[in-house]
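Regression report. Comparing outputs from two consecutive submissions.

Submission 1:
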Amino acid sequence: MRKLIIISSFLFLFCFANLHAQNSNHRNGISYKWVLLDYNAPFLGNSPLDTDGALFDRGAEIAYWRNITPFLNVGVPLKLASATLPDADQDKALNPNPFKTSKFLGSLDVVGKLHTFDKTWLLNPYLFAGAGASYVEDEDLIVQFPLGAGLAFRLAEQVYINAETSYRPSLSDDRTMWQHGIGMIFSFGGAPTEKPPMTVAPLDADGDGVTDAEDACPTVPGKAILMGCPDKDGDGIADAEDDCPGEKGTVGLNGCPDADGDGVANNADNCPAEPGPASNNGCPIPMKDGDADGVADEEDKCPTVPGLMRFAGCPDTDGDGIADGDDDCPNFGGLAKNGGCPDTDGDGVLDKADKCITVAGPAASNGCPEIKVEDKAVLTDAMRAVQFETGSAVIKTQSLSVLDQIADILKRYTNYNLSIDGHTDSIGDSASNLTLSERRAKACYDYIISRGLSTTRLSYKGYGETRPIADNKYKDGRETNRRVEFNLFMK
């Protein structure tokens, strides 16, 4: 028997050496203990603490444990021991120690362990109960029902010393026993967290924030809106295309200024402070000009409103080179190809219809970045993947990773908000179902907010049983109807 204990101890330590390297999610555990078996006390009717004449058998036990909830473990202990068993055919009054010769005993149990306090505490008492079967050589299988209590002392985050005692009533005659043990528990868990792949920053030789691959002027710092080219006078025209790179001008005059607004650039205007036609080199010609814009009334298409000579006397309020009458956005500078309206992010969706003016996106999503197919799949699958404890709003631990993914999607799509809708099946009271659905939606809302999202970007609501998507008459339909939906929408 001593050899048996030594061999089982070696196997246990070998297993632990391999398991201890795993990521410590604490969902699984291996325990090992040395045990004492007492068939004497139940058979003779004395106290298990009365050691006078008691026969204690020795053995070893190894078990695998699985964490089902924060306070409940289920385990499968395997025990090997020598057993000195009582002989029911002998008269206990005549023979006070009617025990048979020591025999080999092996047992396998299924046990549930209830932790009564937080398992992160230094001392952790627990209760356990279960059922098992024992094999004794030359005998039939013995069915027993272990009931007991124990105390675990935490040495480290994944290591415990524990001691326990149990009473094991049996269906077989004279096979009820006491068992006492002391040993260690080691916890382990999930796969190692993968490190994000290393990325190499794109080249930007001039350090202007525009990568060389997209920079029209890769050796000179410039502006992103001008494809990385400089604009010294800040008129929105790259120096290479600006006829007056040292003076702020207008698009219509290729970057040159027009102080008097007569359509003649200052560098070609003989009267830069007085409006005049180009035919007179920018100098005024005495004429009838009711709006005093330098365009004779007979030639002025807008005779009552001051305008520009190049637009036949009509104004260009935003100075984009397009007369107000032809400009779809007369108060905002834009390009002729866009009808005079701006498209700040250059995505083909004009600012007046673009809900994400500074971020490029397709017209189908109103100019905002389109949600990727894989991100849509996460939101769709979450309707099934996010689960709760039965009849409550407590989110199951395995569902939290899905909510983490949804929080990450929100952080990447900053122009979108999220609505969370809770639904139930039709079983039970409709008012209670409505309350439960809203509590579950709020539980998801609270968790995502805790991941660093603003409350202004999320909302939640419960609909109870009012919006089924399957038939509540069938079990599968009711399972489908119990769901939480996550819907992205633009601000």
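Submission 2:
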Amino acid sequence: MMTIEELVAKAKADGGSDIHLICGLPPKYRVSGGLQNMSDEVLTQDDCIAVAQFLAGRRYEEFDRVGEFDGAGTFAGNRCRIHLFKQQGVPSLALRLLREEIPKLENLNLPPAVMQLTDLHKGIVLVTGETGSGKSTTLAALLDNINHRYNHHIVTLEDPVEYLYKPDKCAINQREVGKDTESFAAGLRASLREDPNVILIGEMRDRETIETAITAAETGHLVFGTLHTGSASDAVDRIVQVFPADAQTQIRLQLSMTLQAVLTQQLMPKKGGGGRVLASELMIVTDAIRNLIRSGNTPQIANAIATSAAIGGQTMDQCLVKLVRGGQVERTVALHYAHDPDYVKKNAI
């Protein structure tokens, strides 16, 4: 079979984002959002075991026992995120190619108001979306923008470390969960004693992490985090629902005072093929939205965002309409990704 170096080199040359190795199938990679075969050779069980042994190294026995392994490495000159897992007792691989350079924030086709988020000095900024929607890239661009403009201390907590920052005006510590710290929650607690200005939490997975993130924001830190939600209102609900019912009123109050913005992303096929287009929703938290968060009236948040164009906010559906009118996305594609297809159908003309 092709070596990992050869597979990554081919994926890189063809614009692939992910490589999948599965016993009984040819090697596959994701190009412009869809999976394609990389060769005609069908992978055997021995092939998959050999790949797992190579990538896990000394931790292969641990992987063999536990069934999952996360890591990172550089192949064919490209940094990659590694996830090994077992299916039907045989190793499989999902390998993500990471961009070698952190893109400029202004080149990501995000709402212009996103630039203002790097000027904040405290509070919580969430970047949300499904897996593979570009959250890590956006967060890296946000932090690198701060890196080139402010004399701050940035601490990141990642699983694993993806983009490698080159410190400019900032001092930057990148900590990897499982290697440099036991968990997101433990690393976040420790970060409060590390004199940070900015903290990046790779994933806000549990109550303890979310509680500590809110505390960090309350005590004057700027906290960036991610959630796997499809809208700003869903992000608020997801955070609140992590807590028991008797604690939710207090959390809504704290969140209303600390949340600064929620950016939600989707990647969709570009009109005419040849890549994907980013669509995004941006909620900039206003006094009206703070009241909705406090009162638990999150279904009304979308309406509040829809009327916030003057300060740079936009809903996902408003963005989709712009993309259709601008000739970047097919109308049928926009309808598929819309939250309110009727709105998009009526306005995307």
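Expected: both submissions complete independently.
Actual: both completed, but the second showed a warning that disappeared on reload.
Relevant detail on submission 2: The domain at 4-97 is CATH 3.30.450.90 (Beta-Lactamase).
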